[in-house]
Amino acid sequence: MTHRPPAALIKFLNPYNRDIQELALKLRALVLEEMGPCFENIYDAYSAVAIGYGTSDRQRDGIFHIAVYSKHVNLGFNEGATLDDPKGILQGDGKQIRHISLKTPADLERPELRAYIKRARKVAVDDARKLGEKGPAPLQKSGEVISVVKAVYAKKRRPAQYQPRVNGLSPADDWVEIPGACATLGVERGSIAFGWDNEHPALSAEVPAFSIERHDAPSLISPRCANIVPCIIGRRFSKERDERHFGGYSGGEREEHQCGLPGSCPAGRWRRGK
What we know:
Blueprint: H1 7-13, H2 18-35, E1 38-44, E2 49-54, E3 62-68, E4 73-77, E5 98-102, H3 111-130, H4 137-142, E6 145-152, E7 172-178, E8 181-185, E9 203-207, E10 210-216, H5 228-233, E11 236-240, E12 252-256, E13 270-271
Parallel strand pairs: 1-6
Antiparallel strand pairs: 1-2, 2-3, 3-4, 4-5, 7-10, 8-9, 11-12, 12-13
Helix pairs in contact: 2-3
């Protein structure tokens, strides 16, 4: 049975180069051929994308896992320290976990991979039986794989060469220097004919100079307004009377856009007249 990778897993693997992505997914397919039925627990963790396999979504029921790094993929055995290792290929010196590192698709052809996976699974099932435990009944009957995203870390370390993709393209980015100045929000009461309560009073503060990163993703904007910045900066206004405009204002201003699409351009909006 073929188990397609969930969309969340594909997304988590995006920062890695194509070879590592394919290696991770091929190893996943190999593991599921030997392990299914099972639970697949996915972690978009700090230092790696990790995929755990066990008889439930509980971490204590995990048998082995896949860990994806920038230059290799590990097949980890949760109880590897006590697993028979006749080939002497298990790596690691911790109290519990051992792993096998894979760097190329050719590594997947090593027959000992399947042998060690089968051995680890058999040991885990036998130990569970000795304790009187059973695997989840629905999985035993259907042979399915249940994928669960267990954690997504806000802070992650990913390959240095990674750039986000927008419709297959990497958006340009640069840093904009903002000079220090006095910023004022709101207006004093009585200084304009009409204003909402949250616009009063005026508050001013000195804002120090700072830098901000700008990402230009033109594919997100109307094709006829490929760069929104000139459209915003280069506004042209035309006076129009509009008796409905804010409590009877008669001097509404309507923005005319260089892109010619005020209805669909993200910069399009009505402004209150002076």
